[in-house]
Design a protein that fits this description.
By secondary structure, the protein is mainly beta. It has 2 domains: 29-132, Immunoglobulin-like (Sandwich); 141-374, no CATH class. It has 3 helices and 23 strands. The chain has helices at residues 2-20, 302-305, 331-335; strands at 29-35, 40-48, 54-65, 71-81, 87-96, 105-116, 119-132, 141-142, 146-154, 162-173, 180-191, 194-197, 200-206, 213-217, 222-228, 237-246, 255-266, 271-282, 310-311, 337-341, 343-344, 358-360, 371-374. Strand 20 and strand 21 (343-344) form a beta hairpin. It starts with a helix and ends with a strand.
Length: 376
């Protein structure tokens, strides 16, 4: 009887000991960084939690202009699964900044809340850090202002259609083996009596990505493309920039010739750009329910168009490697292509290409007189 009581007591003590083991601590650490060119920020969350648990961190990043004190914020979610060792870490990079980095110096901070299996748990914050972009070093090379003319066909019957002007380049010359960027600026298209402004573009060639992507930063009003550095020498069409122009409903005249004006600069010296562009027409809608994506202000939604960033290289969204760069990969948009511009519709989603002049990127010049190329 004595020993039986001892055994019962031992079991009871063991159960008490098990019950006394604390639940795994849930911790959260949040850090961030930002870049000027392209104007983007990166958020990393890490910590500890229950092995195998699903966690979500909801963070708000704050960008405060130092000259005015005005704060702009953006809220996003980051999800991860806790590893068997009870730790997690997740980084979300290349987020377009909600401010124009070159317009001011900014202090940047962030606050995050950890949710474990859907239940709110703990919080963390970082910052402030300072981002100053107004004194960036000059580029190592520039092509100077260039102009390339091309024959297209836009007629009054095309009124209210969307003309997708899209350009790309292939790199030649001394291509670096380390990360570099290309800026595409001073862009406009002479279209009959009108001059159309084309958004700027930043193309980053980096070893930190394994697939290509393109997005449109609505705050900075610029295209931002990332290309794996290893494909800088292999990709034969790298998306440069694009403009979706809605033809006026009262489009009165025929336009048979356009000119694309452009300047390339780069942090890498001695590059050469083989430049081309095309123009494809799209209907605003059809009788099958397909609708061209538009913003609330009536302008085309570039991100919803899902632009293919590159030809002959892997894309992050798994786009058809046979499609030309600049192809809108949104299926509804593809269904709306029609004849016009430099294309005949069908599967010609970019329009047929112009001629291919080579623009040499040399030491920056103060000349502003365009050097002209022509294709007919």
């Amino acid at each position: 009887m004595y020993y039986k009581c001892l055994r019962v007591l031992a079991v009871a003590i063991g159960l008490l000991a098990i019950g006394a083991i604390p639940a795994p601590a849930h911790t959260l650490h949040i850090s961030g960084s930002s870049t000027c060119s392209p104007c983007q920020y990166t958020i990393t969350v890490s910590g500890t939690s229950t092995p195998g648990a699903s966690i979500t961190v909801t963070y708000t990043a704050f960008f405060t202009a130092q000259s005015t004190g005005v704060t702009t914020s953006v809220t996003q979610n980051i999800s991860a699964t806790v590893g068997a060792d009870g730790t997690y870490s997740q980084t979300v990079a290349h987020n377009p900044s909600p401010v124009n980095c070159g317009a001011d110096a900014y202090t940047i901070s962030a606050q995050g809340t950890l949710y474990v299996n859907g239940a709110e748990d703990t919080t963390a914050s970082f910052g402030p850090a300072t981002l100053t972009c107004s004194t960036q070093p000059p580029p190592n090379c520039s092509t100077g202002a260039q102009a390339l003319s091309y024959n297209v066909s836009e007629q009054s019957k095309n009124a209210s259609e969307i003309v997708w002007f899209n350009s790309h380049f292939k790199l030649q010359g001394n291509i670096p083996s380390t990360d570099f960027t290309v800026n595409v600026t001073n862009q406009s298209i002479t279209f009959g009596p009108a001059t159309l402004a084309v958004p700027n573009a930043v193309i980053t060639f980096t070893s930190t990505v394994s697939c290509a992507s393109t997005s449109f930063n609505t705050t900075a009003n610029q295209w931002e493309t990332f290309i794996p550095l290893s494909y800088a020498t292999h990709a034969d069409e790298i998306f440069s920039a694009g403009l979706a122009y809605v033809l006026p409903s009262s489009f009165p005249q025929n336009v048979n010739n356009v000119t694309w004006n452009v300047t390339f600069t780069s942090t890498a010296p001695s590059l050469q750009f083989q430049f081309q562009y095309g123009a494809a027409n799209y209907l605003s809608s059809d009788n099958k329910g397909d609708v061209f994506p538009m913003n609330t202000n009536g302008e085309p939604n570039y991100n919803a168009m899902m632009i293919d960033p590159v030809h002959n290289a892997p894309t992050c969204n798994g786009y058809n490697n046979g499609d030309h760069s600049g192809t809108p990969e949104n299926t509804e948009v593809k269904n709306l292509v029609t004849g016009g511009g430099s294309g005949g519709g069908g599967s010609n989603w970019t329009g047929s290409w112009s001629s291919t002049p080579t623009y040499v990127c040399a030491a920056p010049s103060t000349s502003t007189t365009p050097r002209r190329g022509r294709s007919v």
